[in-house]
Amino acid sequence: MDLTERIERRRNHRYENRLVVDWDALNPAVHLSEPVGREFVFEAILDAADPIFDGQLPPNVYVWGPAGSGKSAIVTSLYSALQQTVSRGQRTFHTATRADSLLGGFHFVYVDTRRTASRFKLYQQLLNALVDDKVPERGIGTGELEDRLQAELASADGLLVGVDHVDMDETLDIAELREFLAPFPKVRWTAVGRTPPDDLDSHPPEVEIQVPSYNYEIVDILTTRGTSGLSKGLDHTQAKALAEWSDGNAHDALAALFGAASVAEADDAKTLRDEDLEAGKEAVPKGGVPIGRVLTLPENKQLVLRTLLDVSDSEQSIDTAADAIAAETDLSPGTVRRYIYELAQHDVLERREVAVETGTAGRRPSGAVPRFPTLVFERLHSGT
DNA sequence: GATCCACGGGAATACACGGATG
DNA sequence: CATCCGTGTATTCCCGTGGATC
Q: Which residues neighbour strand B (beta carbon < 7 Å)?
C-alpha cells in the first residue's frame, strides 16, 4: 500500500465519521436548484412568461407570500435556469441562426434589492450581468450607466428581471422599481415580496401569484437537505419535530437544523442529539430575520454584529456595547452606536430594557439582542 | 475632475422622572 | 389631581467629508 493510498483511506475514513459532509446543503441561505414542493408556483410564473416564446414581452409579475415559504428559492432557481438555457443559445445566435434559439433575443437577470437599493446599483447590476467586462461601481455617473444599458438593450428582444425582496426595509418598493425601469420599455420584471398586493402603494402588477405558507412539505425539505448534508441523514422523528416547531417557515427549520449540526460537530458528536436540536432551535428567534438578510448587510455592519455576539453580556446597554465593539474594531464608537440603532430599527437586533443601577435621571438605556439565527451567522463567519 | 456612498459627528427630537404650578 | 417645566439621557435624523475608482 503506497502513501497516497493510505492518505486517501484516512481521508475517506474521516469523511465517513464526520457528522456533516456538506454545510451548503443545510445552509438556509443557499437555495437548491430544484426547490421541493412548489411546482405549481413555477408553473404559474412560466405561464405568465409564455409570450416570450413568441418573441413578445410578457407582463410584469408580483410573487408574494409569507416568510420562509420558498419565494426566493423559486425565483433564484428559475432565473438561473432561464439564464443558462438562453445564454447557451445566445452565444451562437447573433444573426442568421435565430431559429436555433427559441428565446434568442431575451435576457434574464436576477437581482436582490437588498444589495441593489438605488437606481445606480440597479443599473450597475443589470449591466454587469449583460456584458462581459466588469462594470464600475463608482467614479461613473448614473446617467452614463443608463445610456450604456440602453445601448445594450437596443439589439435585444427584451430583458426579464427577477427582483427579489421588494418592499422591505432598505430595499426597493414596486413604485421605485417602476420608476427606475421606466426608461427601458423592453424590460419586464418578476418582483418577489411579502406585502399583499392590496397593501402596495402603487398600482398593482398585471399578474399576481400568491405563495402559501409551507405545511407538511417542510419534512420533505428537511429530509432532502439532511440526506445530502449529514453523513447519516436526518432522523424522521427529528425532522417531523423540527417541522412542527418551525410553523411552516422553511428558513427557520433549516436554520435550526444548521445550528444543531454546528453545536453537535463542535462537541464531536457522531449523530444529532435532541439536545443539539434544542440548542439549534434556541438560536433561531421566532419571527426574526432570515440569515440571508444579515449576510447582505454592508461588511462593517456584519462586523459589528459578529463582535456584538462576542462582547455581549445581555445586560449591558447599547452605549457600553458600542464602546466595547469600537475598541475591538477600527470603527468609531459613534458609528457603532448608530449602526446598532439602525440594525434595531430594521429588526436585525431588538432593543430590550436593561436593568439600570445608577441614578434614575434621564431616559432608560436599552440593550441589544440578536433577531437572527446566531449559530448560523457565527459558523458562516468563522470560515471567512 | 467626477462619481457614489460609507463614515463620522453633531444637531434635533424623544423619553423619563421629579418637582413646581394651577 | 392633572399638567407643565427643567434636566439628563437615549434615540433619531441629517449632512459634509473623504476613500476608492473611473
A: A 118, 120-121, 138-142, 298-301, 330-332, 334-335, 338, 360-364
